[in-house]
Amino acid sequence: MRLLSRYAFIAAILYPFSFGALGALPDTIEKIKASVVGVGTVFPVNRLKVSDASPAFLGTGFVVGNGRQVVTNYHVVQKPLDDEKHERLVVFAGEGKAARVYMAKIVRTDSVHDLALLEFSGPKLPAMALNVSRQLREGENIAFTGFPIGLVLGLQPVTHQGMVSAITPYVMPAFSSKLLTAEKIKRARQPFNVYQLDATAYPGNSGSPVYDMETGEVLAVINSVFVKESKEAMLTNPSDISYAIPVSYVKELVSGVEAEHSQ
Fold first, then answer.
1. How many other C-beta atoms lie within 10 A of the C-beta of residue 229?
2. Domain spanning 141-262: CATH 2.40.10.10
3. At CA 245, angle to CA 203 and CA 210, rounded to 5?
4. Under CATH, to which class is 32-120 assigned?
5. What is the pTM of this model?
6. Model pLDDT, residue 241
7. Which residue of 29, 176, 203, 258 has the smallest Cβ count within 10 Å?
8. Is 190 or 164 the better-scoring residue by pLDDT?
9. Nearest-10 Cα torsion for 75, 137, 250, 19
10. HEC string of the chain?
């Protein structure tokens, strides 16, 4: 026992941040889980349980601001709804069979940085804090929580860990030629930096918050995965290379809405 204690003491000295973060992660997950929601669509239903709604899952989001605002990726919600069939945008909150469906609307978008801000009708949920004063460094450990396989197993949040492997210039792809504008072409010539993560993410993780493992503060947003073979092989043979948008762009998005409301 003394020998083990001595090794543990030496390891804690050599790797204080890693051991501290790993020890804190279970508590952090418990703290932030209620803030992580699913984003999807449903056709109008009388009861707002996920099991009753025949939902279509689109991606992950997380609660910010006033407790009814949700940040997700623009590409998650950019497809127009089917008005003829009365399709509605929603967020899924809670876990498992207790998960609920809340009608939502798009409040603001930033297609250049692949971000969207939604607002839902329903009880407030705990908002995640945005840490814009800290920029991640290469080699730092992070965690992210989301729904990598959607609603296949019910609404069950899944957490992955990873490391910032690079900070690299990135140009958002044009989701449609109709969305190409002179301004976007101009910005494409001036790519912005994103975090490349040594971490396994899946399509359902789009919009997942990347956060500090000790504090739970949001540092970035998962937005894409490097596909090394085909989209069909992403689940069975993932590349373990993911990309995340820095939280500073999230702050700009949320602040823009707050400024509009204050006028």
1. 11
2. yes
3. 70
4. mainly beta
5. 0.81
6. 83
7. 176
8. 164
9. 90
10. CHHHHHHHHHHHHHCHHHHHHHHHHHHHHHHHHHHEEEEEEECCCCCCEHHHHCCEEEEEEEEECCCCEEEECHHHHCCCCCHHHCCEEEEEECCHHHCEEEEEEEEEEECCCCEEEEEECCCCCCCCCECCCCCCCCCCEEEEEECCCCCECECCCEEEEEEEEEEEEECCCCCCHHHCCHHHHHHHCCCEEEEEEECCCCHHHCCCEEECCCCCCEEEEEEEECCCCCHHHCCCCCCCEEEEEEHHHHHHHHHHHHHHHHC
11-51 pLDDT, tens digit per residue, is 444 444 444 566 799 999 999 999 999 999 998 755 555 55
- Tokens 């971000």 correspond to 115
pLDDT-above-90 percentage for the chain: 58
Angle at 160 between CA 156 and CA 164, to 5 degrees: 150
> For the chain, which residues make up each domain, given as ranges?
32-120, 141-262
What are 216-234's pLDDT values in tens digits? 999 999 998 744 344 444 4
